[in-house]
Each structure stands twice: as C-alpha cells, then as structure tokens.
Amino acid sequence: MSLLEIRNLRVEFDTAKGPFRALSGVDYTVDAGEVLAIVGESGSGKSVAMLATMGLLPDSATITADKMEFEGLDLRTLSAKDRRKVIGKDISMIFQEPIASLNPCFTVGFQMNETLKTHTGLKGKQIKDRVIELFEAVGIPDPAGRLNAFPHQMSGGQCQRVMIAMAIACSPKLLIADEPTTALDVTIQKQILDLLVQIQQESGMGLIMITHDMGVVAETADRVIVQYQGRKMEEADVLSLFENPQNPYTKALLSALPENATGDRLPTVSDFAQAGGF
Fold first, then answer.
1. Distance between CA atoms of 145 and 256, rounded to whole angstroms?
2. Which of 51, 194, 230, 265 has the smallest CB count inside 10 Å?
3. For residues 209 and 46, what is the distance between their CA atoms, to the nearest angstrom?
4. Distance CA 191, CA 180 (A)
C-alpha cells in the first residue's frame, strides 16, 4: 500500500468571472522512502494539489477526488479535529517563502515550541532541548542562541532551515517541500537540497519535491510527474524521463535547459505550444 494515494483529484475556485479549474483529474502516489518530484511551470497546479491534500485551500475551492488516502486513512472525510492530528505530525510541508511563513511577531524558538506542544507530550526543558537538537540537525549556527531570534534577524537560508526543522520536528512519514530553494542563492540552494535528501534517507520518510527546476529533479528524485495547466502530462522514473521523454511538453521543458542549447536562441515552451505540440 502506498503511503499517499490520490486518484482523479479536481480543484475549482469560485471567482468573479465564474469557476476556474486549477486541477483536472490528476493522480499521485508516493511510497515510504521514495522521492517524488512534481515539476512544471508556474500555474501548473503543483502547489494547489499539495495544499488540497493538506486541507489548506480556502473555502472558495471545491475539491473532489475518487480517492485521497494517507496510510489507508481517508483524507476526504476527516473532521477538522482529526485532520489537525495528522497534519503537522505525520504529514508536514515546507512552504515556498520562509519569511512569509514564519510569524514576524514571535521568535523562531516560540514558533518551534508551538509545533512540539501540539503534537508531542514534551514539556518545558524537554521542548527547549528538542528545539536546540533540531536547529543543530539542520545546520543553524549557535542553535541555543537562536531560540530568541525573530525571523527578520535571520538570513533567508537560516529561515528556511527553521522551516525544515519545524517540518521534521515530529518525525513525519511524509514531507512535502514546495519550491524549498526559492529566492536563495545557489550555494544555499545546494545546502538545503542536500539537507532534505539527507533527512529523507536517514528517516525513510516519503518526500514530495515541488519544483520547476529540472536540475533539482535530476539530483533528488526517484520518480517524476510533469504537470501543465492542471493536468498530468507524463510520469516516469527520473532516468527514463531525462533519457527518453514521451510527452511533447516534457520535451519542451528539457529542450529549454541551457545545456541543451543547439543554436543562438533557446526554444521556449511557448514555441512548442504554438507548433501544436500540446
């Protein structure tokens, strides 16, 4: 049985101009110990799919699915109370913008405390020691001294490490990383990716990596789902996808990589679309 299995997921948003279909019947599965990459350009529905899974979309969203199960637990029928027991503990998510995700009014130590208080039986000094242990594990310098730091007093890379520490605090079985290296410089990007893969390999959890960066896919993923305009274009193991892509959109993404340049100008996805490729 898969760790997470979603079948025929559809998401629509109510807008002033009428319903907008963000996802059109996509399927996802991920197993324990597996890294699944979901790749596609902005607006392809990658984040929407995961937010729907987490139950974090606004009331304006209509979510339907033939199946949405985590370890056999039907996520479609969970009460809000029961969902809170799962989300943040067994399923965690690292969001795109660490600065925006952390509350600027509270120290990072306080925000870590809240996570552990909610989902574990730890108290007092036990929580403090656990937070320091987590900060050290994700490579935050002077972990004890950082407990009283506010998000604005930390760099973007350090804030992202705080978000990772928060996400793994309760040893989740599934971790969703939504563009975890957005707005970070190249050196820090590599450090964050290496850290995520290391944590995944050591814990044996499932990892879903949402990205538009094919280089990240090549370095981290076991299996890849390619999305375009709310639909799944292709699914394959990472080696097959790069060596023998089947869908024209996947070919367009790979052809747009600088290392694949064959002329004075890189082809764009729009070039393939205009040519009737998809």
1. 45
2. 265
3. 10
4. 11
pLDDT in tens, 75-130: 999 888 888 889 989 999 998 887 788 999 999 999 999 889 888 888 889 999 99
Closest alpha carbon to 193 in 205, 209, 212:
209
Q: Are 126 and 133 in contact (CB under 8 A)?
A: no
The predicted model scores a pTM of: 0.90
Q: Which 8-state DSSP code applies to residue 179?
A: S
For residue range 247-268, list pLDDT tens digits in order.
988 988 888 777 766 667 766 7
Identify which of 270, 263, 230, 223 has the alpha carbon closest to the alpha carbon of residue 249.
Answer: 270
Strands 4-15 and 61-64: antiparallel
- CA distances 194 to 124, 141, 199, Å, are 32, 17, 9
The DSSP letter of residue 106 is S
